Amino acid sequence: MKNILAFLSVYAVAATLQGGLVAESSDCSSCEKGKTAVGAEAKSECTASKKTLTLKVGGAVCEASCGKLVTALTRLQGVSKAESCTKSQMTKVSYDASKVCETSLRKAVTEAGYTIEGQQVSLPVEGMECGGCSSKVGKVLTSLDGVINGSACHQSKKATVMFHPDKTSQEKIIAAIQATGFKVAAQ
Ligand SMILES: [Cu+2]
Questions:
Q1: Ligand 1 center to residue 157 CA distance, Å?
Q2: Per-residue pLDDT at 25 exceeds 60
Q3: Which of 45, 98, 145, 174 is a plausible cystine mate for 49, CB 3.0–4.6 Å?
Q4: Helix or strand holding residue 86 (H, E)
Q5: Could you tell me the distance, in angstroms and rounded to a whole number, from the CA of residue 182 to the centre of ligand 1?
Q6: 120-184 maps to which CATH number?
Q7: 138-183, pLDDT tens digit by residue?
Q8: How far is the centre of ligand 1, averaged over its atoms, from the C-alpha of 142 (Å)?
């Protein structure tokens, strides 16, 4: 039943656009469905695919090298913003996941001559009620292969993890947190 409804709404959006009219609904759920049917126009209105990637980059230690790094990233299609801090060596990229993927972003960094020392994610974790819960999650995180450091806070209900993208992935980290009995909220 759900599939039929999804198909019908895609068809409806496509038919509307073919008729030269603008799709009425601008919420992301309809945009997600409309994406495959109507292409670039619908994509530009969608915010569901907007993501950020935070990397610790080795070598970007002065204004000039940070500038070069930012230029290399913003040159990519789908990147709306890139910021690099010489002090923390953290680089934050805002991008559209429907146009560019994480792998391409990391490749742009290494091709520009920098090394990726880590990738940082902040994950919303549901169900942590006290310090015991957060330390349980924190312990699991730091025991994972490829995790540089990780911690969880029951007050902010978040887990912050710095990991090496060549050795592990966000998916594996999420799976490890879920295995402790806490749930990672959909992002
Ligand atoms: Cu607890």
A1: 12
A2: no
A3: 98
A4: none
A5: 10
A6: 3.30.70.100
A7: 999 999 999 999 999 999 999 999 999 999 999 999 999 999 999 9
A8: 18
pLDDT at 46: 52
Mean pLDDT of 96-115: 95
Which among 84, 130, 127, 85 has a CA at the least distance from the CA of 105?
A: 84
Long-range contacts of 174-182 (CB under 8 A, 24+ apart): 174/123, 176/140, 176/141, 176/144, 177/123, 177/125, 177/137, 177/140, 177/141, 179/140, 180/136, 180/137, 180/140, 181/127, 182/125, 182/126, 182/127, 182/128, 182/133, 182/137
**Residues 64-90: what's their mean pLDDT?**
92
Look up the CATH number of domain 50-113: 3.30.70.100
Going from N- to C-terminal start, the domains of the chain cover 2-45, 50-113, 120-184
